[in-house]
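About this split. The held-out portion is used to measure sequence recovery: a designer receives only the structure tokens and must propose an amino acid at every position. Recovery is the fraction of positions where the proposal matches the reference. Here is one held-out target exactly as it appears in the evaluation file.
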């Protein structure tokens, strides 16, 4: 199977043109070194034998074996995601000049289905792993079974059920959402719904817990009819589906607590399509503070994630884990910041 890998396959995986990848392979590429290294690492992962990278990586003279190598392993799109790129850049800055080489590898759905780990993990060249956006329990367990020190940025939603010596970096999810919902309740709002699959990952679960804990504190029952908590998928990104869900709500909530900004933006668009005003009739709060949150109309009240700090914390914890691999599991939280904008009323007294 590996012998059938073509240059176009590698180009597709890297998100680059076939011409660019060909230039990298034949030594005629004059672009950024990070892009070149990224493509070469993909060739390693895909076992592109025509290029001979597998032998090169195993060779004692290879630059990969003359340094300590840290692997960024993600199921997300590193190249096109601002979230991932900020974290990767901070990790690169932190290890620069300290004798480490940064490797990148993207996990596909098919890799998870067949439980296939990246080839470089089996070559003995990886000393530590920073794992992002990987939430499949069985795949995580297989990854941990190889014994390489690993830090996860975000995690499977039931954090403590997976055994092993590893660390998790999280953002402050539960407290911030709880405080914001408390503020809305004290301002008179009672019909408060939640939108998002809280079982998708640990962060989503903690945001849901913040929402439910605030309601319980004020003896307000959780009303499933006000919530959209289906499994993550098209239901949160198809405006027609969202509109149909909102139409079935009777009444429509005073507040929607959205698990992230991308979903919140679609909720606002759907509410507008149905004739509701935001924040006149429905308040919206969310999480992430992506660029679109400040650009849309109305601008989005949300909670800001400090991506650079996540990157710095991840690599600091990983270096410590590499030095002391038998330490017990740790979850480290990075603080977040509330950003109040136009999707909530101005007269709310925020706690």
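Reference sequence for scoring:
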């Amino acid at each position: 199977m590996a012998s059938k890998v073509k240059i176009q396959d590698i180009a597709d995986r890297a998100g680059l043109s076939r011409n660019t990848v060909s230039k990298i392979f034949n030594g005629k590429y004059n672009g950024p070194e990070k892009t070149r290294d990224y493509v070469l690492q993909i060739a390693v992962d895909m076992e592109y034998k025509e290029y001979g990278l597998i032998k090169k990586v195993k060779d004692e003279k290879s630059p990969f074996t003359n340094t300590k190598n840290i692997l960024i392993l993600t199921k997300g799109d590193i190249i096109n995601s601002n979230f991932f790129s900020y974290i990767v850049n901070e990790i690169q800055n932190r290890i620069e000049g300290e004798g480490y080489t940064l490797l990148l590898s993207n996990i596909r759905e098919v890799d998870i289905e067949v439980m296939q780990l990246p080839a470089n993990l089996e070559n003995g060249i990886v000393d530590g792993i920073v794992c992002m956006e990987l939430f499949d329990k069985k795949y995580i367990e297989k990854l941990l079974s190889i014994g390489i020190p690993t830090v996860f940025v975000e995690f499977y939603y039931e954090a403590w059920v997976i055994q092993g010596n590893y660390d998790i970096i999280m953002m402050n999810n539960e407290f911030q959402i709880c405080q914001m919902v408390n503020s809305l309740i004290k301002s008179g709002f009672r019909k408060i719904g939640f939108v998002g699959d809280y079982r998708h990952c640990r962060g989503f679960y903690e945001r849901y817990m913040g929402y439910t804990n605030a309601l319980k504190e004020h003896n307000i029952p959780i009303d499933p009819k006000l919530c959209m908590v289906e499994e993550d998928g098209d239901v949160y990104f198809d405006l027609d589906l969202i509109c149909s869900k909102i139409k079935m709500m009777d009444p429509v909530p005073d507040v929607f607590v959205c698990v992230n900004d991308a979903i919140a933006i679609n909720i606002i668009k759907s509410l507008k399509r149905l004739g509701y005003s935001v924040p006149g009739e429905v308040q919206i709060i969310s999480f992430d503070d992506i660029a679109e949150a400040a650009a849309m109309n109305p601008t989005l009240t949300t909670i800001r994630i400090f991506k650079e700090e996540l990157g710095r914390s991840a690599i600091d914890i990983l270096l410590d884990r590499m030095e002391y691999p038998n330490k017990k599991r740790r979850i480290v939280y990075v603080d977040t910041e509330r950003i109040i904008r136009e999707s909530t009323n101005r007269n709310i007294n925020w706690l």
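Annotator remark: The mean pLDDT is 89.
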